[in-house]
Design a protein that fits this description.
heterodimer; A: alpha/beta; FAD/NAD(P)-binding domain; Immunoglobulin-like; 7-stranded mixed beta sheet; 5-stranded parallel beta sheet; 8 helices; B: CPE0013-like fold; 2 domains; 5-stranded mixed beta sheet; 3-stranded antiparallel beta sheet; 2 helices; elongated
Chain lengths: ~400, ~120
Amino acid sequence: MMHRQAVIVGGGPAGLAAALRLREKGVQDILVLEREQLLGGILRQCIHDGFGLTRFGESLSGPEYAQRFIDRVKAANLECLTDCTVLDITPEKVVTAASRAKGLLQIQADAVLLTMGCRERTRGALATPGTRPAGVYTAGVAQNYINLQNIMVGHEVVILGSGDIGLIMARRMTLEGAHVKGVYEVQPYPSGLPRNIEQCLNDYGIPLHLSHTVVDIRGRERLTSVVVAQCDERFRPIPGTEEEIPCDTLILSVGLIPENELSLAAGVELDARTRGAFVDEHCQTQVPGIFAAGNVLHVHDLVDFVSLEAEALADSAAEYILKGSLPACCLEVRAGQNVGHVIPQRISGTRSFTLSLRVRQPLTDVSVVVRQGDREVLRKKMRKALPAEMIQLPIRAEKLTDSADMEVYVE
Amino acid sequence: MKRTFTCIVCPNGCEIEAEYEGTEVFSVTGNLCPKGKAYVTQELVDPRRTIATSVRVEGGTLPLASVRLTRPIPKARIFDVMREINRQTLTAPVRIGDVVIRDVLGLGSDVIVTKHIEKAQ
């Protein structure tokens, strides 16, 4: 069996950033496994700009952002196997992978870094009634066809869900000559970023219908129409509000799910709220030596923050690999009032870390409060807090105690 | 006049309340940085956007190279620029930064490649 100090599962933005930081920290023996032919992950098909504003201070396209990391990975001579699919990870950190070039591989790792990203919710997850014609795609699949394979997906388009990829694809398809008739969102507020509503929909006169959903999909071989309806506050369609919209394409942008099948095989426990692993402040899962960061841990809005999180992971993983252990994290971090979830879910109370959270619904003029018992660790005023925007707060060690659990709430 | 703008300069997406008359801005509130005020002023005078799309590549490992503009162009010219870009074909290999069209339609912006495409074996 091969041995590596660190095996990184996934060569997207999180995996590449983690690999580079591990090497900087003195870990020599690193292997990145990527199932696609090329490194870069989902950024390869995200050709729009707006990436890298935080990290590089300029607005790059996804492929350019990825290439900056790929160039450094190549310069550092880091070992990357592409076209190589990981099949299994054990709690003992044995990674099994298959590739056409190398056959079946078994690698004993000191540390395994989970950076597999996320995937899209599909029509099956929504249980939308109707026939099963061609012409129904998730936004990311449409993006792959149009941006990587030069295949136009349709002409008359309806979009269900206001996730960022759906908004980006509304603009992209419009530029390519399609007619995007509207975006329908079941919730009373958009799930994508405000700037994408502005520059992808408003700029092109594409209407956004909140509190609406698709209640029927029609067509035999190709989609011919969808039926949309208004919804009440419990997301139930309101009878009598149905409207049939002729179209040949339905794009679904209804959420992203961290891709954790391999994590489960490794015995990693998942948080039902993030659908990613429970982690401590070291990005370590409940299985010692198995770490997770990026969209596999919780879905991010911005790749810049994926890179940062993966680098924080790598700092801890390097310490684990080189010293053999990390400080225990015995304190729980709980999501309180108005908070959907928090990352990390456990801390030591002795070290600085970055706290990530999302609010449950849009709020204005609020304060995010971080407490340990009677001690107020941090209070941050915010003019607006949206579920579409992840909130990240640096928490400094000197403000912490190692004797009380933490609660995070918004008031 | 009063209007609320959503700034698109960065992911903060500030909601900016602006008071203005014609193209003269009297006050802006809600922006976290000076770029917000510049954005509002630009929106009133001459709204501009960048676009990203792709260009066909012959003899490459992928059929398309992604491209983008180096500077924003007037919003009303977006589809004119798309037509220009759609006329182009590149031959592999292409590299990030290769200029596909210099000063597209005289608008002061270049169309550049944003993805390396190797020559097919």
